[in-house]
Amino acid sequence: MMIRLLLLVLGMVMTATPLAAKPLIFAHRGASAWLPEETLAAYAKAIADGADFIEPDLVPTKDGVLVARHESNITETTDVAAHPEFAARKAVKVIDGRRQDGWFTEDFTLAELKTLRAKERLGALRPESMRHDGQFEVATFDEIVALAARSGRRVGLIPELKHPTYFAGLGFDTPGKLVAAIKASDYLRRAPVIVQCFEIATLKRLHRELAGMGNVALLQLIQSSDVKQPADVVAAGGALTFDEMVTPKGLAEIAIYAQWIGPPLRRVIPLDAEGNAGAPAALITDAHKAGLKVGVFTFRPENQFLPTNLRRGEPGARWPQGMVADVRQFVAAGVDGFFADDPALGRAAVEGDPLK
Predict the structure, then answer these.
(1) Total tally of structural domains belonging to the chain
(2) What residue ranges in the chain does DSSP mark as E strands?
(3) pTM
């Protein structure tokens, strides 16, 4: 069943709607509103649904292979808890200052991870995706690149390097592995690639090591206001905050080593006290003045993720029209790209297509 579904989704690619140039649609962990995130099936559907780029979050295995998981903690996204042979691997770790309890990719070889199966992280909120629990393997970065290369069109990759300072402390050079993968891949030397990270030092390193590759850009991710500093700044005892990074001075500094910033939605169009979308902030204008493009995250089609004034029905219900309306506010504000759990709705919003 898994193979049939993957082949069916891949077969849809050649009939996908032609892509508009801007804004770019970044498939957030694949078509993760419909299939378990970061799986080959989710990426295949995202390509078929018109995404310009597909996004794998990259973490290492014990034997040093880059795999796609939102975090190295795989408790919520795989069936690892149902595998008694791995019960003793459960651990407590502190990653970027946050205590986590569970199972972690860095404690499993790739062969061991391949015995696990993905599951829907948001559970019953996404019943369509949850129906596919147990069908798909954990995907490697190389497998995702190969999928894009077979797609029949020029699909970009927008990988995020997760927690590189934390992994460096464990002996894993994840930025180095990604640089090597890009340079070794015929597809990644030609296709559009945007590498994203919350950590500044990692992006500055990539700026040096990927210099001269005209198809590769870098994106500085920006946290919401409840996270004060990048993890590498904290580790180095620095004072720079995310709030300072989105000032005109901070944006000018980012433009020295990156071409994009990636702020959360509500740094761009804030919500008022009632949860309604307000007027755009100055961030897009300021970023453009600094020579940076803006790719916001993340649009989701369920009511609970939408501004109050764009919701219809029960709090957990899917409301596609609300997401499309939300996206169009950002398009009107001048955003250059956006991450979406449902790339087909993102495409409809960009193209002005009516929903079917």
Answers:
(1) 1
(2) 24-28, 53-55, 57-60, 66-68, 91-95, 98-102, 156-157, 160-161, 193-197, 216-221, 260-262, 293-299, 337-340
(3) 0.93
